[in-house]
Structures are given as structure tokens and as C-alpha cells.
Amino acid sequence: MTAQLTTAQIEIRDLHKAFGDLEVLKGIDMTVERGEVVCVIGPSGSGKSTLLRCVNLLEEPTSGTVVVAGSEVTDPDVDIDRVRRRIGMVFQSFNLFPHLTAMENLTIAQRRVLRRDKEEAARIARANLKRVGLSDKETAYPAQLSGGQQQRVAIARALSMDPELMLFDEPTSALDPELVGDVLAVMRSLAQEGMTMLVVTHEMSFAREVADRVVFMDGGVIVEEGPPASVVGAPEHERTRTFLARVLDPAAAPLRTEEAEEAPPGTGTVRKDG
Ligand SMILES: Nc1ncnc2c1ncn2[C@@H]1O[C@H](COP(=O)(O)OP(=O)(O)O)[C@@H](O)[C@H]1O
Ligand SMILES: [Mg+2]
């Protein structure tokens, strides 16, 4: 069924996802209304990325329904490419084409997927580079940009496709700390412009200031959700309190134990900025 089922931009009902025997999402219900900013927080391995990836079918849910902008993406007959075009996604790793300039990174999908002509694609690209504060970097290659600048190019690239909603998966986690603020500022202004945003982040100050709602996930379930002042400011559940204590004081106990164990020696979780 592809009829308008809801006015929500994202509606997730009883979503389950397993990888073999590993049950990663154990019945997620979530709604994101048009213009709403929802931040998802939770420990490494709790299923946050899998949840986002189920929204645009980078992962196929095991069961449950996901409706995005009125289209049920879990309908086997859905035109998923058409739905994906309406969803902008920004990952931790920026995924820019290294052999293309910032401008070319922004125009290539506009031309190939949306069939825009060269001039229109360039005009839209320029407007979006300006939006993220990088008008002077049109001709720069990714290697000539800092990590923060690359991530802002990645956001501008997503915006150039005129998405109806944006998914962010830990967009600042790979950045050196001094570069995080510029990326968050771009996200904050997007939120103020009314973009619908589902954001996985460990940036609690961003969640507190920008999110309409915060969702705390642990072990493949939503433990609690509500306004940031409640979930981050005065959490009800012990698991939420434990998590927040670790995020706010990482020295007290490592938050990302799983990732630290998985990473090859010397790679760390913080990307060097080039
Ligand atoms: N493609 C996959 N195949 C097998 N297991 C996976 C896959 N993707 C994620 N997982 C596992 O699912 C769990 C949740 O992962 P993820 O959604 O990335 O969590 P988070 O983003 O909260 O850190 C982890 O145990 C992870 O190892
Ligand atoms: Mg993740």
C-alpha cells in the first residue's frame, strides 16, 4: 500500500531486524513529524545505525513497517529509488568522491539522478555550498579540505538533491573536536529552516538545544523518549542515566568499548583531519 498512511515524515511500526541469529532491532516504534528534529542516542551496538539504515532500506527489515513521506518503504512493490531520492543521508565518513572537486561532488548526482542540466546543477550546488559556508571551496578536492569542511560538503551534496528529510548518523564522530562546532552549526541552521531531521549523535549539547525529542536506545529497544529536558536533563531510567554519565564524562568509563575492540590497532576512532 503506497497511499498516504500518515501525516508523519517517518513512521516506524514494530520494526525488527536480525543479522542471522543476532537480533539487533527488537520492535521499534517511532514517529518523526514534518519539521521535527529527533535525536537518537545510545551506546555503541544498540542498533542506532541499523535503525537509520532501515529507514532508507540500506538494510532490509526482518519485519515491521516503515513509512517515509507517505510511501511504505517496506512494501515489496515500492519504488525504493524514488523514495530514497527524497531522503538525504549523512554518514560519519563523508563518502565524497576523492577525484572530484567539491562542486563536482555536488553536481554529479543532480545530473545523473535528477537529470538536471549543467547550469541548473551548478547553480543549486553553489547555493548549497554557500549555505554551509564553503563558497570559496568550489574547486577544492576533498584531500584539500579539513574533515569538518568535507562533512559540510557532504551535507551540501545531500541538500542539493532537495530532500524532504535528512538522516544523520554520527556526523561529527570522526572529526577532531575543534571542527565539530562548524558542522553542528550547519545542522542547527537546517533545523531552524524547518528540515525534518533524524540524527544519531553523541553531542548532548546539540541534542539539548536543537532536538524536539530525544530517543534513548539500548539493546535494540527504545528505553525512553521525550523532550531533551526530560531524557537528557532528568532521565527516568537507570540505563539512560548510566549512558549519559559515560557520555558526559568519558574518562569515567569507556563508552565505545565494542568499537575500540573491533578497530585494528593504531586506527583509533578519531580520524586524522587532512
Ligand atoms: N551488516 C551487519 N551484519 C552483521 N551484524 C551487524 C551488521 N550491521 C550491524 N551489525 C551488528 O548489529 C549491532 C548493532 O549495530 P549498529 O546498528 O551499528 O549499532 P550502533 O549504531 O548503535 O552502534 C552490532 O552488534 C553490530 O555488530
Ligand atoms: Mg552506529
Automatic annotation (TrEMBL):
<dbReference type="InterPro" id="IPR030679">
    <property type="entry name" value="ABC_ATPase_HisP-typ"/>
</dbReference>
<feature type="region of interest" description="Disordered">
    <location>
        <begin position="252"/>
        <end position="274"/>
    </location>
</feature>
<keyword id="KW-0813">Transport</keyword>
<comment type="similarity">
    <text>Belongs to the ABC transporter superfamily.</text>
</comment>
<protein>
    <submittedName>
        <fullName>Amino acid ABC transporter ATP-binding protein</fullName>
    </submittedName>
</protein>
<dbReference type="InterPro" id="IPR017871">
    <property type="entry name" value="ABC_transporter-like_CS"/>
</dbReference>
<dbReference type="InterPro" id="IPR027417">
    <property type="entry name" value="P-loop_NTPase"/>
</dbReference>
<dbReference type="InterPro" id="IPR050086">
    <property type="entry name" value="MetN_ABC_transporter-like"/>
</dbReference>
<dbReference type="InterPro" id="IPR003439">
    <property type="entry name" value="ABC_transporter-like_ATP-bd"/>
</dbReference>
<keyword id="KW-0472">Membrane</keyword>
<keyword id="KW-1003">Cell membrane</keyword>
<keyword id="KW-0029">Amino-acid transport</keyword>
<dbReference type="Pfam" id="PF00005">
    <property type="entry name" value="ABC_tran"/>
</dbReference>
<keyword id="KW-0547">Nucleotide-binding</keyword>
<keyword id="KW-0067">ATP-binding</keyword>
<feature type="domain" description="ABC transporter">
    <location>
        <begin position="10"/>
        <end position="244"/>
    </location>
</feature>
<dbReference type="GO" id="GO:0005524">
    <property type="term" value="F:ATP binding"/>
</dbReference>
<dbReference type="InterPro" id="IPR003593">
    <property type="entry name" value="AAA+_ATPase"/>
</dbReference>
